[in-house]
Design goal:
- The complex is a heterodimer.
- Chain A is built from no helices and nine strands.
- Chain A is an all-beta fold.
- In chain A, the strands form two sheets. In chain A, strands 1, 3, 4, 7, 8 and 9 form a six-stranded mixed beta sheet that branches. A three-stranded antiparallel beta sheet of chain A has the order 2-6-5, with no helix packed on it.
- Chain B is mainly β.
- In chain B, the strands form two sheets. In chain B, strands 2, 4, 5, 6, 9, 10 and 11 form a seven-stranded mixed beta sheet that branches. Chain B has a four-stranded antiparallel beta sheet with strand order 1-3-8-7, with no helix packed on it.
- In chain B, a hairpin with a 6-residue loop joins strand 4 and strand 5.
- The termini of chain B are far apart.
- Classes of the chains: A mainly beta, B mainly beta.
- At the A-B interface, strand 7 and strand 8 of A face strand 5 and strand 10 of B.
Chain lengths: 110, 119
């Protein structure tokens, strides 16, 4: 049981837009920055978004992040088959004094 | 650029201690950032284990704290993980990664190493 809640799966057609949500509480998302990771099959996770909405160098602007209250959202526009992956949210939990991750959302590009 | 590489035994017997090392290149651990370990059981999600700052300040996942030790060797520019009394539930791909000062993000990650706990 993950501290952060994500839908197990989401799907959309190529070229479309998809959003992936991450729900938490005041001790984690509500008062700390959120990050998002993309894990392509058989590879290590890769940082996509940090500090709620910032993109590391090299991450295309098709990927965006936002936060409202105790929830965060990853948006992906112009979906490509290469975007098929597992996506995880993560943050610090001030009550647990621990890093917490969501359970992951599997994106299928139909 | 910064690169991390995990190394250690791929097979550990139940009740023994799992030991992994993460070698860092392209960046000096002494210069800052947290350094951490995250694992992923087969077919499951990410689980943070522990993180350490170059000064030695550490954070551990509460449920694993009694079995985990994380340490840093700045002279070798590497950090390590020890997990004692392992069981089959500790079978996972273990990743090392660099963490932000507030531990809100990790980047980059090592390629990961699969550790199987089995007799």
């Amino acid at each position: 049981q993950s501290v952060l809640t994500q839908a197990p799966s989401v799907s959309a057609a190529p070229g479309q837009k998809v959003t992936i949500s991450c729900s938490g509480s005041s001790s984690n998302i509500g008062n700390n920055y959120v990050s998002w990771y993309q894990q392509l099959p058989g590879t290590a996770p890769k940082l996509l978004i940090y500090d709620n909405n910032k993109r590391p160098s090299g991450i295309p602007d098709r990927f965006s992040g936002s936060k409202s209250g105790t929830s965060a959202t990853l948006g992906i526009t112009g979906l490509q088959t290469g975007d098929e992956a597992d996506y995880y949210c993560g943050t610090w939990d001030s009550s647990l004094s621990a890093v917490v991750f969501g359970g992951g959302t599997k994106l299928t590009v139909l | 650029q910064v690169q991390l590489q995990e190394s250690g035994p791929g097979l550990v017997k139940p009740s023994e201690t799992l030991s992994l090392i993460c070698g860092v290149s392209g960046y000096s651990i002494s210069s800052g950032y947290y350094w951490g370990w995250i694992r992923q059981p087969p077919g499951k999600g990410l689980e943070w284990i522990a993180s350490i700052y170059q000064s030695g300040n550490t954070y551990y996942k509460p449920s694993l704290k009694s079995r985990v030790t994380i340490s840093v060797d700045t002279s070798k520019n590497q950090f390590s993980l020890k997990l004692s009394s392992v069981t089959a539930a500790d079978t996972a791909v273990y990743y090392c990664a660099r963490g932000s000062g507030s531990l809100n993000w990790f980047d980059p990650w090592g390629q990961g190493t699969l550790v199987i706990v089995s007799s």
